[in-house]
Fold these 3 entries.
Entry 1:
Amino acid sequence: MSIRLQNIAKHFANTQALEPINLDIHEGELVGLLGPSGSGKTTLLRIIAGLENADSSPQPGKILFGDRDVTNVHVRDRRIGFVFQHYALFRHMSVYDNVAFGLTVMPKKRRPSNGEIRARVFRLLEMVQLQHLANRLPAQLSGGQQQQLAIARALASKPKVLLLDEPTEGIQPSIIREMARTLRRIRDEKGLSIVVSEQVLSFALDVADRVVVIENGQFVHDSPRAGVDEAKVSKFLSV
């Protein structure tokens, strides 16, 4: 599903977190959203998801998923998968139950059967290579495995868009490249549009089709991966 952001701005009290910005993300595109801490990356992801509202004045912004205006649509109805920076896993639930949770609490008319839930959960665990750890608790997983679990859980409800907030934070460098391969495989198999916010340029260059850099709430660089000016982008990230 394509994503179109038109005139999206956000302020908190006296701080302008996002200047009015515009961005088009094509269906099935994997975009790396790069920027230093405080640049507006997470705020932008949360607005796309519907977890934050963009400013409505002086000129209201608009968010389109395909041809659908979702600007005022509740987060639960946007069909978004969101992987939070600190995972937000249910610590008392097993790996299996973490992935299954969103399916088991669906309204009865929409809820898959127990057999369908089990099959879907294990397909997702296999995709992220955690099927052999289905009975473990999150605390028994490595940081990389917890991140993979968070991705599987985000995919359980069959979202059209997947958003990840700094997925490499706290992950060993040896795991980062495997995570990039996992995200590309998910995009290829499911046809999702994926936006990954990051501070690590090497990861963005491994995973993304396109790199967009944000600084002080404004886009300062936007190019296909092959056209990224690495020296210029590195300077923005070192701010």
Entry 2:
Amino acid sequence: GRFADYYRKLFEHVRDIVLMIDADSGMIIDANHAAELAYRCTREQLLAMSIFDLRPEGSDRVERQMQVADDSGTLFETMHKRCDGSTFPVEVSSRGETLEGQRVLLSIIRDITSRRQLEELRDEFLVLASHELRTPVTSIGLRLQQLIRKAERGGTTEQALADARMTLEELRRLAHLVDTLL
């Protein structure tokens, strides 16, 4: 009736991939428009496939995840395969339901390619930032140690001032780096 039409529109409009999968066979019973776009194939092609066709790894793992999804629901990350053979990372939220006497898995699948790219960029940034920050910190520490040793040995005021100025310059460089990062 009225609600079936509403849910169909919602099913088609949502941006995440939505698959309805037969819990026993793994066959795809229904797929939304986002699934067609993500997997780069038609709904007809998808409905002729099983969840095993979308997963590049072995079927044992897929069967275990299907069982957990059916028993208690599950959320995990994995790789999915498109109809053109390329793969992409996904986050899968799946749980079992009985619909019209048939046990099905309702799976909401999100393409996490951009999340993975951001994580890689963040990791690269942290490596670069830590290296760039360690250099002036090490330099400041060494200069201060030299300044203390010279003062203990009775070094001249001119030497101490020159070392203090160089240390202050390193500190300004560090402060500028921190400001830039923030």
Entry 3:
Amino acid sequence: TVFVSFKNSVKHINNDNIIYSSCPSGERAMLMTKHNKEDLGFNRDKKLIIIVMGSLGSMSVTEKLKDFLETFDRSDSEILFISGQNCFEASKQFKTPSNVKILKFYNDLPALMKDADIIVSRAGASTITEIISLEKLSILIPSPFVANNHQYYNAKDINDNELGIMLEEKYLNKNTLSKELDKLLTNEIEINKIKTNLKNNKKVDGVNIIYNEIKNKGVLWVLRVKKLKKRRN
């Protein structure tokens, strides 16, 4: 049995028993206790944008973000850039304004995502599932350095279903990121469309789907073994 996080993944896998289960990280994210952004010094009355490229970070994206972060001048928003362990030394040299904070890493990130307004991230299955489960506006920048370019197809699925926005890394710069963020900060039509789609998106109980399938297959296997033993006796 193969469990997949996205319905579109089914056509890419040569197996007769594929089950769409979503990714169990979504349920975990929803159950986590929210971390308040004020604890990190952010303003309750301003929008919080979290930018994160995984626990290790992405040097190629970090370099592209430098100009954007150093000139971010919106008075209605603040940014938390979680650089990742491999990129922190480079990113802490950025001369950012007071409404931009840079951290190396953040434990229990989904708990903080609950108090954020927009997430800018890579397009791994677990991260996307957390974003969708928490119904957060997002800009997904798929990594071009993964097997079979799977993050592109993850992000494209979200973009095509109007659950978020895909911005390919090759097009990422100060202007393109600002343009997409403006849509999610000021364009009420775009904001309401995505929020409505997120709200109406059917939540899948991946934990129980996977657990029940394994349990049922395990019971069948035990019955087969018992039957085989009985025949031998």
